[in-house]
Amino acid sequence: MKAFKILSLIVALGMFFYACEKIEAPYKIGGGESERGSSGDTTKNVLIEDYTGHGCVNCPVAADFAHDLQGVYGERVVIIGVHAGYWATPGTFGPGFDTDFRSQTGNTWDTYFGVSNVGNPNGLVDRADDEGNYIVTPTNWGSQVDERLANDFLAKITIENDFNAGTKNLNTNIKTEFQINLTDDYSIIVCVTQDSIIAPQKDNRVGGDGVIEDYDHMHVLRGSMNGDWGENVTNGEDPVSGKTYEKNYSIKFEDDWVADDCWVVAFVYNEANKTLIQVDEEKVTK
Amino acid sequence: MKHIIILLSTFFIFSIANSQDKAEYKTLPSVNIKTLEGETFNTQNIYNDGNPILVSFWALWCKPCKKEMEAYNELYEEWQEETGVKIYAVSIDDARSTAKVLPFVNGKAWEMEVLLDPNCDFKRAMNVNMIPHTFLIDGKGNIVYQHTSYYEGLEYEIYEMVEKVAAGESISKH
Amino acid sequence: MNRVFLLIVFVFFAGISTQAQFSELLKKSEVHGSFEFDGAYYMPDNELGITDSLINGRNFAFNGFGNITYTLGNFSAGLRYEAYLPPLAGFDPRMEGQGFPYIWATYATEKFSFTVGNFYEQFGNGLTLRTYEEWTLGYDNSLNGARITYEPVKGLLMKGVYGVQRFFWSKYTKNSRGIVKGFDAELDFNQVFTGMQDAKIKLILGGSFVSKYQADQDPIYKLPRNVSNAAGRVTLGMGKFILTSEYAYKINDPSAINKLIYKEGQGLIVSLSYSTKGFGFFGMFKRYDNMSYRSDRGETANALDINFLPPNTETHTYMLTSMYPYATQPNGEIGFQFQINYKVPKKSKLGGKYGMGIAVNYSQVNDIVRNAVEVPGTDETAIEEPGTLGWSSPFFEFSDQVFWQDFNIEIDKKFSKKFKGTLTYMYQTYDIDILEGHEEGLPHVYSNIGVLELTYKFTSKKALRGEFQGLWTKQDKGDWAALLLEYTISPHWFFTVSDQWNYGNPVKDNRLHYYNGSFGYTRKTTRISITYGRQREGIVCVGGVCRAVPASSGFYVTISSSF
Asked: pTM higher than 0.80 for the full model?
């Protein structure tokens, strides 16, 4: 009899422990289209670097995650698609996969943060690290973006582009205005991304050979205007609150860079830990 | 914080180690493991009525372990007659193959007692790093000898120890 | 918190150990411990593509631990120190560091036990919960918290656990990972009910509930914060037959592993064995569908698993039979296994003077069938789309995609007192794309493997053992041959030389030799071994959990001891 008493106790205890949450559809409560661009924001923005490749079957899902986050937070989220590593190699994943989306800057970053070494898709969110680990799985980008958005607004970036269609030369003027006095060293990277490149992409969600022939590649990193790691914003002095630091850069567009689809992305980061304090983007042509 | 712990634990180990020479031997810990039939078995119930006991850790995936068990099995009858020794073969196979141990043991016609330690609780409590690892326990329940790894012929070395224990001789100098 | 607790305990015992009146008490106290050091000195090797710049100054690497356990009557406590400075090649780089990841104290009486700190626990087969530590994988998912076990009557054992899991060296902070709680009970009818004590039928029932909590910080998806996983199990013994089964059901658990699908998870294992002296039969069936269960839904590497999904394949250990090992596919797999062990009796025609052992094993694992499901809010259907139910799957159907197939037969025979041998043949199908995570559309690897192992004893303590191995396949790296010679002097010494030769590699420059020489010394519980040579690139798996090992070249030292 004692055993039965104890058994019922077990069942009661079990019920207590058996906390559960059955979620009903729709499961997706955010996402969709949204505005992009710089408005001289007065909020802390977040950069998602989506390390990807056209041969990587799980990468489109990750791109969707990033896109959805931009849908939720609008221009507070900036995306760069970094094509690097094995899955981005041209000419290995079948007919049509001959576009080379890689860039020297992207390769340097990929090697430094070791992303494709761990595997694609993976990404960096504001290049913030957790005890030395910078890489964030796509399914965690959401919570990571959420966390980073809560950080203080430390610097305002204003981007002004002047593109000459004849010479294909882009001149960019960047103003960084710090909001408080800081003591660390900060660098700025200014790079060019391109939207709407139509080319094949592997995707395991579609049937057959798992290829989307006319995939719309967005936010593709084309190159940096001021080197792989940029340049010190303040030329060595401690950033002063209210002071504006100005930089001018230029780059000549390659033939396949469609200026109307291109953006300039600029971000300021702490040189000590590579973590961003601010990011912004602006269209190359008005 | 870490340094304090290291310091204190070092002190603690030394102070215990000092008092350790007063204590004669080490005994078996109390850990719940399983019999081949799935019943819970407490390791304090490893018992042989005052005769020596061998406790040997093995696994289906460990070839030298199986060789050691085979060697024991061949000699077991003889050994039992001479010294009354009892052998407990503790398999540390995980859930992947715990259910395979019984048909394997029967298929090999092994005569010793076989126990299952699927989550290595007993192995950990006995501080076994690698298997095979064999313990010799005297009639009073003290662990008097242990050996890790198996090479052909080790069974004779082990049996020499068993004979000494059965005869009540000390093997601590060995 | 438990560090402070341990500190108090240590101070207490350090204090009383100096008091003479406690010496009597301390006579009953015991200290046990063990340590291991696995070190490597890596050297450049042009043929393997290992250059100085790849080693990058980190020529020396080691994994090491030291373990201390203290027991005094009903009380016991222990700690483990670990250091990976830096970790050996192929281990998770997040392991780099040193410290005390495992500290615990337990008070136990005959019916009751209470543990605080880190602990390892397994409910049933582990489908709902298993925390364990596997040194060779660098895997440790111990729970840090509290555990109570209670056995009110003999044959009824209950366990409750509560805590957070170890994640390399990362401390638990708010929302950094989930909180795990669990409860398990097992009832042995033959022990509890006096009327059944001598019954021919043996019955054991068990059940477990596990629940994890993790905050929902996702702005796009509505994520469940509490996810539970429950299982029931039975062991039924009828004379020479034993039937065991466990079924687990997990509610919606969108994660990085299942790509944020909201499907429920199911796991089923059934095994049946029949055995008499000299004959054993074993058969099993298992099916997993969306059963990954971790305390961080974003973790994809080998860490923070709450449950364990045992594979249904044989573990192989020879150099070449273990070249293509099985890795459990938590998102879905269905399979079965059969095994027969037979001992041809002594003095029969085939058995000879000593008898002969025969073991036949067959296992197969396929993908489960996955059908498209509705995408909420649209007219479309999709498979594995985030924010949907993922897929629907008929329970007992096998998909056409074979992940794994293994037929093997092993015959061992003793010819004389001095000479014995084992012959193994294996035919294997291996889905390299899925099992190694390539997804490159690589063809399955079909291989035939043969191993002949012979042992000759010169004297009762000196023996020479040889392994002659071959692996033949048209896929992957092609054909291999391997040879191993080992000379042992019991109980102290061993000397081994071996070579694995990839003579059939389709790329001529890759037809490499992976040679090794090693020797070792063992005394009681201390073992030292030194190896020089090349490690083949490969995969190490324990219990279906796998780790990739890169090729390397150099010296390797292992020192292990316990007291």
From this structure: yes
